[in-house]
Amino acid sequence: MAKILFVMTGADHWTLADGTQHPTGFWAEEAVAPYETFRAAGHEIVVATPGGVVPTVDKGSLAAEVNGGQEGADRIAATLAAMTELQQPIPLEDVDLGDYAAVFYPGGHGPMEDLAVDAVSGRLLIDALASGRPLGVVCHAPAALLAAVREDGANAFAGYRIAAFTNAEEIQAGFGEKAKWLLQDRLTEAGVDVEVGEPWAPKVVVDRNLVTGQNPASSAPLAVELLKKLG
């Protein structure tokens, strides 16, 4: 029916405040749940990454304890293995926004490393926002919004209400003291209105054509809201 662009991190690590590299990538549930929702509705998925590198899954996101048990973990892993689009990403630099009906950014700590400072992604986000296309961003992927800076120096998302991974969640995940910066703080500094929900509970915020989710549990309900906007 329509083509949906998944913009995904190309990073396989996140550089912490002490200079060490924490192995990461994209968070499995945040790609799998929306993928299943969009595919079930008959839509085609195209994956794009910086440089066209094959995205790396955060191994921590495959664990039983974050997938409701081993059965859930097995299902996530099986779906990932079947997502052939992940093995054939196009370079983000080659994306023509006109080819896509909607744009979606899965999270994971990877975007904190690359998409947060990726000017190509930043321009795509500015153009997607201005186009009125449904734009979905979840968990740590709002880090990419930090690169969406207009020529006048203002962030394109300033004044928008969003959900994103919170300081409280980062602290509870064990990275509050280790991170160079916290996502909620940086977004707030950029003029974005971050609405904070309960840690780890689903929270989706819709503001105009922008649909955002706070954490992994928000990825499935976010996909449903994005589909509503696609009609």
From TrEMBL:
Residues 28-228 form the DJ-1/PfpI domain. InterPro entries: Class_I_gatase-like, DJ-1/PfpI, Prot/Nucl_acid_deglycase. Gene3D superfamilies: 3.40.50.880. It comes from the Bacteria. Keywords: Glutamine amidotransferase, Lyase, Stress response. The keyword Transmembrane does not apply. The keyword Phosphoprotein does not apply. This is Type 1 glutamine amidotransferase domain-containing protein. It comes from Streptomyces sp. 900129855.
